[in-house]
Amino acid sequence: MKFRRKQRENVDINLVSLIDVVFVLLLFFVVTTTFTRETQLRVDLPEAVSGSPAEDQNKPLDIAISADGVFSVNNQILPKSDLASLMDALQKEANGDTNRPLSISADGKTQHQSVITAMDAAGKLGFSHLRMTTVEAAPPAS
Length: 142
Fold this sequence. Notes:
Strand order of the largest sheet: 4-3-2-5-6
Low-confidence stretches: 38-44
CATH class of the domain at 47-136: Alpha Beta
Mean pLDDT: 78
Number of helices: 3
Helix content: 25-40%
């Protein structure tokens, strides 16, 4: 006896819809993922590898901040290191010209609050050209 074999139907799985679902899920996870930096990284300030040197437009005002938070405006040390005396010194040096460039040079070990105080004084007086000065980072040793 010879039995006839039935033809098997080819079973195909439609992968197009599965691929669409996978891409939508991938897109969802990429968009909703937040990337955080570890806070244990060591940061050495103030070094910068890139940047442009200051152009000589007008004579710039310079606020220098020492490591212990003492302010000086155009190489004149202020008697008090607070917001009011810094604003008075900036107004006196600028003669009301808030279009002059203002550069803040802070020591690498200066507390952030001192730098924020200098930026706050510049903002309250209306200075719009603010620069943070840094030193160029040393090239990595080979």
